Amino acid sequence: MRILVAMNAFKGSLSAREASSIVAGGLRKGFREAKVIEMPLADGGDGTVQVLCGGPAGEIAEVEVTGPLGKPVKAEVGLLDGGKTAVIESAQACGLALLVDGQRDVRRAQSTGVGELMLWAVRRGARRLVVGIGGTAMNDGGIGAVQAAGGKVLDADGRQVGPGITGLLDVSSVSRGSIPEDFKGVEVIAITDVRNPLVGPHGATRVYGPQKGLASDEIEEVDEAMRRYAAILGRDLGQDPSDLPGAGAGGGLAAAMAAFFGARFESGSCFVMKETGFFEELGCADLVVTGEGSIDSQTVQGKVPFAVAEAAYWMGVPVIALGGGLARDVLSGYPPEFAALFSTTLRPEGLSEAMASARENLFFAAEQIGKAGRVFASSRARRQDFAVGGIVVRESGSGLEVLLIEDRWGMVAPPKGHMEPGETPEEAATREVYEETGIRVAVAGDVGEVKYRFFAQDGEVVEKAVRYFLMTPVGGEPRPQEGETQRVMWVSARDLPGMRCYRDTLAIVRRGLKVFRAGQDSTF
Fold first, then answer.
1. Could you tell me which residues come within 8 angstroms of residue 365 by beta carbon, excluding any fewer than 6 positions away?
2. DSSP character for 434?
3. Among 121, 122, 162, 228, which one is least packed by beta carbons within 10 Å?
4. What residues contact 448, with CB distance under 8 A and at least 6 apart?
């Protein structure tokens, strides 16, 4: 059995490398015959530099830059490809973790150190900058970073504005200054685990400002200042990032990366997974163990454990997640991409005690998983099966609807079935949808393949692969298939989570809706 260990950091107690090593050690003790591969991950926040550049192929330099409140701090810059790629964590230069509670001052906090790190890297020869955005103390729209890198953010008198929100309120005009010359030919990639726009109810100021110390009576003023700033970026640079998904990351630092440096945004977790070769290792794995300090409702918002689980799900590889703590909301259900969730906290204890015993607890939990895995290893699939199905989507007045059946066991699922001799997968899927639902459809795209395992009546374990196609209705009326289908129904996308579904139903329907929307709107 081949087990891939892909842990994120346990913030405040264990780095991603440490957590992965501890889990791997516990698994090896519990399941000595298993081959365990360690692949620590990050999402663009804490630990990204160490994960990407801490191995033999990387180098890590320490640079003194301006901290969030103007005092010098030392930040790491990771270097790859002989220095041609530089990896920067914004939190190391302007992070909340650099300040104790009494020092936090979001009005003064600045992103200057990020721009200093970027300029240091390009002057050293970097041609690709990877900027991890997250965990920042400021809400300055990235103006400090821009000024430090050579850009101009000016007030009504033509002078550079001051740091922090105070400066943001004074912005009257902007220009790229020396950035085009100094960063000529440099690719900038901003990686983050959030998709918040710059302004509005889900923007940087309203969502993250209070966490950084912004008072409730200041939010409206600062959000309006950020909106004016975005309009100025649109007027002077030709790019208004107000509604750009992800632009609100890092207190608007991501917006500045896009407008001044032409940065493209990528999911932090997915970027790190690609750069570390995770997907190649995943293809050879029988089981993945991932996790981080807390598993809760935020985990599905781009965090490492969910990114790992989502990738593994489509390759038929089960994923177990370990959390230092599990929020109570997991009791009411958790994403089907996770095969199981476990807390590593062995008994009721406070946060400081749990962090102090994190190593011991994590090793023990991993050892138990290894022992259980050794017991169940004999349940590996003895034969394979293949089927095809359709995710049929239509637009209605209330939004998108998906065609689903209720089978003879009372479970809701997309229609699917086996191929007949001589049929192509598309032909078989089209026929099965019509036979089970009475709806004639046209194939509009490929949703992908999902795999799962089950016990057959003879006791053998079968691995079944189902290839789903995105389809649109072209005629017919809903009609259940006698003996197979109890009901045929059009279900609103927002009503799916409350239905009695198979483990894979929600995930495959979400994938189908994602493909459908991508076909409608290819913008970022």
1. 26, 322, 342, 343, 344
2. H
3. 228
4. 314, 467, 468, 511
